[in-house]
Amino acid sequence: MQARMTPPALCAGQRVSTIPDARSHKEVSIMTTAPTDITRDEVRERIRAAGVPIPEERLALVHGLLRDALRPIRALDTREALTLEPAPTFDAAAERDRHEQR
Amino acid sequence: MSSAELCGLGIVELGRRYRARELSPVDVTMAHLGRIERLDKTLNSYLTVTTERALADARAAEESIRRGHAGPLAGIPVAYKDLYATRGVRTTAGSALLADWIPDHDATCVSRLQQAGMVMLGKLITHEFAFGIQFPGHRFPPARNPWNLDHMPGGSSSGSGAALAAGLTVGALGSDTGGSIRGPAAFCGIVGLKPTYGRVSRAGVVTLSWTLDHTGPMARTVEDCALMLQVLAGHDPDDPASSREPVADYSASLRDGVRGLRVGVPREYFFHGVSGEVTKAFESALITLGRLGAEVREVEIPSIWTAPAFMVIMLSEAFAYHARDLRERPQLYGEVLREKLMAGALFTAEEYVQAQRLRARLRGDMHRTLREVDLLATPTAPVTAPTFRAVLDPDFPFARSNMAPFNMAGLPALALPCGFAPNGLPVSLQLAGRPFDEATVLRAGHAYEQATEWHRRRPPV
What is the ipTM of this complex? Predict the structure, then answer.
């Protein structure tokens, strides 16, 4: 049986992280999560390592993209999801078919 | 009948009048070409207008209707997002890289609609490589929203949404990696369907992200989308992801109503950042569905907060697709798009795999939720169409996508009008269903549409 992914909001006793409210700029508390967001310095390091010419003035844009995208991945405790497999090819009906065969 | 009235007719009504000899495909095509000539200088929805081709298609359709051999799409004007390859007609993907590409083949979708007798009016503008908004430095001027020219029409199928709303075509094709069919449908007050992953071929459509890209129809009514889907759906050996799942008769159950259907409303995630005017229209739509006999209840999708991992998959795959050109010809990309694509090089292999694992979990949770209910309902977009000025501000806070989770799960999702904000801009309802159950999604959308008047409103162009 697959371990249930721990939704960030259910990680009790850990620091509160936030996702910015896109409309109002206010910070709304919607995730309580362990992971640390990727920093701008880490993004700079990744840019150097990848050898892609992303100028400093676009750093904020790129940092924002990576921060939001990586947040759920950094919240994943892989030890709790050892049987969760990525599909090598994507099949929208896979889960339905698997269930129906049971 | 005025040009505006003629060009506001849908597939069903045009087909009826063609068969009754009340209207001619050639006359309808000429009316559309004239309207494009008059209005598109301002709207910028078309990149290429194929006048001679349109008239030839219309004459052929007229002949087949006269002989009684025509299907429901014969003689119906259509236009294609400029991401779809069209034989002998320039296909740019909105990019300087492909500015001179004239394909020697049609995308499978184009081929199927042409074989059904549709009349090709031209190619519709797309955001560069179907990614995000049109940034400064874009090669082509952006399409404008017919409801208010200062506002964007959504993207990336921006031309498709704008042209349909303005009566510059009757049907259109869009593509949808994270909402590019449903977003323009929402912002322009028209209908767009992202079918199940694998249901409609992607062959001949320029790739953004292999495992997230979907193709599908856009029109002004749910029934028109159903008629187009009927022709588009089905296995295509040229698309490695194409499904062999049997194709349903989408019109057969279209009028069965929603009585007894269970509609789930996932309040988590989908309602953060939703404006008051969108919430009001959405809640009113739920009341309407309930009044029509649907059982509306709240549901949970436990892993919904993993949905932003979408961007890891999308950017990684997009970078893989563009890697060589980004390194060798970076000057041919719009500057902001270039850097966003390059961000795809910054994820690790582990992060891409973890994102695909989270996607598998999300898909599983959504499937489980869809065993409790027949449909999911959410606002399509959290806000109405923003202004160009707002989105070009580097600090513009883009709202979280309510559409991308359905690309992650590959589920069919329909966007249709459900109201208007006080500023006159459309609001949209999103209905999603089980894999390959487009029939139920369309049936519910049609029932809602028949009970409301939103789809009959036309912009002041």
Answer: 0.90
